[in-house]
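In this supplementary section we document a worked example of the pipeline. Step one takes a protein sequence of length 126 as its only input; no multiple sequence alignment statistics are reported here. Step two produces a three-dimensional model, which step three serialises into C-alpha cells for compact storage. The input and output of this example are shown verbatim.
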Amino acid sequence: MIRMSVLFLIVLSQFSPTFAATGFLNGEEISGLNKICYYQGASGGFSKTVRAASICPLSADDGRGGSYGGSSSNSSASQRPETSVTGFLSGERTSGLNKICFYDSARGAFTKTVRAAQICPISTKQ
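The serialised model returned by step three reads:
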C-alpha cells in the first residue's frame, strides 16, 4: 500500500501543472561577459543570467509558470545579447524542485534552470 502511494505521488508530481514562484536575490557571480544571479524561492534555488554590466534584480520569477517543460529563459529581452552563443554543460546543482544547469561558452558561463527531475541538455543557446 505504501509503494502504491509513493508511486502515485511521483506520477502526480510529473504531470501536475507547475506555478511560477518568486525568489529573492541570494548571490551573484561574473563570468566573462555574463553575470549569474542566484535566487532562493519556495521551489528551491534558481538562477538567471544577465549581461555582466547589468544589476541583478532583487527578486525574479523562477520561470516555471503553467508550462510543463519547466525550463526558464535566463534573461529578459532587454538584457539578451544581440547574437546567441552555444554553451556546453559544465555542471549542475539541484536545489529543492529546481536544477541549475551550468554552461561554458565563448562569452562566459551562463545557467539554465529546469525541473529537478529533468536532465540538463548537453548544450544550449543563450
